[in-house]
Each structure stands twice: as C-alpha cells, then as structure tokens.
Automatic annotation (TrEMBL):
Keywords: DNA-binding, Phosphoprotein, Transcription, Transcription regulation
Modification 4-aspartylphosphate, positions: D53
Domain annotation Response regulatory: ranges: 4-118
InterPro entries the record matches: CheY-like_superfamily (IPR011006), Sig_transdc_resp-reg_receiver (IPR001789), Tscrpt_reg_LuxR_C (IPR000792), WH-like_DNA-bd_sf (IPR036388)
Top-level taxonomic group: Bacteria
Species of provenance: Sinorhizobium kostiense
Name assigned to this protein: Two-component system response regulator DctR
Domain HTH luxR-type: 134-199
Length: 201
C-alpha cells in the first residue's frame, strides 16, 4: 500500500510547495485547503503521515488533531508552526503528535522527519497485524487445547498435564500436537517466544 502524505494548510502556495517537495523525493502527497475538508474526506487507509498547519481559517490545527484523536486516528501528525505557536505545539506533542516543525523550515529536515514518521507508522501497522494474527490463532483453540497450552507454557510434561486435567497421556499428546499446529510452531520453546512477542507488542 502506497503511503500518502496529506498536507492540511489554508495557504495554497504552501500546499503546492510541500507537495512538490515531497514528490521530488518520490513521496506521494495530497493537499487539503482546510481541516474541515480533510475530516469530511478522511482518507485513512493510504495515509502515511499528516502535515498540519497550526493556524488556519476555520478549524485550527490542534482542533483538527483533537477530532482525529477522538476518532482513534493512528497515522502520525506533524505540525507546522510559527514561533509564537511553539507552546501550542508542545501541548500537541504531549497529546500524541509525532513532532512539530517551526517555520521557516529546512526542506531536507522536514522530508527526513516525514520519512521517519511514515516508517514508524508502517512498523506499527505490521506489529498490529502480527498481534491480530496471533490472537486469531489462539481463538481457533478449543477450550481443552487452551488448557493444555497454558500448562505447556508453565513447563509441565505430558504426564503432569494428564494428571492435572484428569485425561489420558495419549489425549494430551494429541492436544499438544494440535496446539503447536494451530499456533504455527514446532515446539514449546517456539510457542513461548511467540506468545512473549504478543505480550510485548
């Protein structure tokens, strides 16, 4: 999926200049004349990053950011700010903005920052997808298989699991095999590592 940079600024010259700057580095960009226009369209799936001006006619940058946060927006937001707006920008950082760039900005530094933001966002999407995949695998386990897996993770041997659950050792072996197969691992060690990744993500 191609990540698009969305530029929200009520000054057409700035939107065009930024779009040209990003395009010159091979980064697709789209400009929006107001926060209202962006919020109405809300292009979420292809959004790699939002470059948002602090002061605009209509909704201000922080107001747009607050509305995006209320919607559960995940893509990084970088604010463009004048010197007088730095305290506002600092507040947006505390609220979850990726960064802010003071005008006049250095073209290369801005592009580098946007590239970094997009890369971090893509990595987060991959991690979220990985976590969702693991959760789907866990949900395919039957109640008994989930019980066996819990005891496997505690380091119990088949005999101990059979005793704990009051079932035959052969039945434990069948359940253990199904657990490993459904979770996509070869042994208990790999299962431990896999679920540790889930806890850490």
């Amino acid at each position: 999926m191609t990540s698009t940079i969305h530029i929200i600024d009520d000054e057409e010259s700035i939107r065009d200049a930024l779009a040209f700057l990003f395009a010159s580095r091979g980064l697709p960009a789209q400009g929006w004349p107001s926060g209202e226009a962006f919020l109405e369209a809300l292009p979420g799936q292809d959004c790699g990053c939002v470059v948002l001006d602090v002061r605009m006619e209509g909704l201000s940058g922080p107001e747009v950011f607050d509305r995006l946060r209320a919607m559960g927006w995940k893509a990084p937001v970088i604010f463009l700010t004048g010197h007088a707006d730095v305290p506002v920008a600092v507040q947006t950082l505390k609220a979850g903005a990726f960064d802010f760039v003071e005008k006049p900005f250095n073209d290369n530094q801005l592009v580098d920052l946007v590239v970094k933001a997009i890369a971090m966002h893509e990595n987060q999407r991959v991690l979220i997808g990985h976590r969702q995949d693991l959760q789907r695998r866990i949900q395919t386990l039957s109640n008994r298989e989930a019980e066996v897996m819990r005891l496997m993770l505690q380091g119990n041997l088949n005999k101990q699991i059979a005793h704990a659950l009051g079932i035959a050792m052969r039945t434990v072996e069948v359940h253990r095999s199904r657990v490993l197969e459904k979770m996509g691992v070869r042994n208990t060690t790999e299962l431990v590592v896999l679920l540790a990744e889930l806890d850490a993500s």
